[in-house]
Design brief:
The chain is α+β, with helices and mostly antiparallel strands and 189 residues long. The chain has a single domain, classed as 3-Layer(aba) Sandwich (NADH Oxidase). It has 6 helices and 4 strands; from the N terminus they run ααβααβαβαβ. It is globular and about 55 Å long. It starts with a helix and ends in a 24-residue tail after the last strand. The structure holds flavin mononucleotide. Residues 14-15, 17, 129-133, 178 line the site of flavin mononucleotide. Flavin mononucleotide (FMN) is lined by residues 14-15, 17, 129-133, 178.
Length: 189
């Protein structure tokens, strides 16, 4: 396959689920945030990025997400209650992307930013993972205090997290297990 570098980066990005504690540089972080900000949007002031580099706070978000997520159903409980479960996989940094609830399609708009950031991270040699899991922390009893601590603007809803960091070991996979979603081509006559 002949590819250009951007296509290679997109095709080779994978979700990373084990991180070294090493911090990522300010320069890389700023590039990733800018990639998120440059994603398509519809409305002004429709999304917000909260960068968390405090591992203690990340651990507290993990614990709150486990608690609130476990209340959802038995399947979730079985996953989250495994000893030592860490849905943030030891990542040293997480960017919480929040959408302005007053803006139509704010979740889609956040999604555009998230994907841009995942690709930017890959291009910079960093691992990343899109995690909804951490958003459970904003569903539980500590939701309001987390929103305050994270300075999430009034009227904005945390939509997803992006984990960032250096992977513990290079991602390897014998076969590509990703779903190839269906495609329909409608030909012109
Ligand atoms: C909306 C959304 C939410 C996701 N939430 C999580 C999550 O909470 N935890 C996790 O480990 N991966 C999560 N993922 C990552 C997917 O599991 C992953 O993208 C998928 O398995 C395909 O693998 P790949 O990213 O390596 O191509 C999420 C992905 C999306 C799009």
């Amino acid at each position: 396959m002949s590819q250009n570098q951007t296509i290679e980066t997109i095709l080779n990005r994978r979700s990373i689920r084990s991180y070294k504690p090493d911090p990522i540089s300010e320069s890389d972080l700023n590039t990733i945030i800018e990639a998120g900000q440059r994603a398509p949007y519809v409305w002004e002031d429709c999304r917000h990025f909260t960068v968390v580099k405090d591992r203690d706070l990340i651990s507290r978000l993990n614990a709150a997400a486990i608690k609130a997520g476990s209340a959802i159903n038995k399947e979730m409980r079985e996953i989250f209650q495994q000893p030592g479960f860490d849905g943030t996989y030891g990542a040293p940094c997480i960017i919480i992307v929040s959408g302005n609830e007053a803006a139509l399609q704010h979740e889609a708009i956040c999604g555009a930013s998230i994907e841009n950031m995942l690709i930017a991270a890959k291009a910079l040699g960093l691992g990343s993972c899109w995690v909804y899991f951490v958003i459970f922390a904003f569903h539980g009893e500590d939701a309001a205090s987390f929103k305050e601590e994270l300075q999430i603007p009034e009227g904005f809803k945390p939509c997803a997290g992006v984990l960032l960091g250096y992977e513990t070991e290079p991602f390897t996979e014998e076969e590509d297990v990703r779903w190839k979603n269906g495609v329909t081509f409608i030909k012109g006559k």
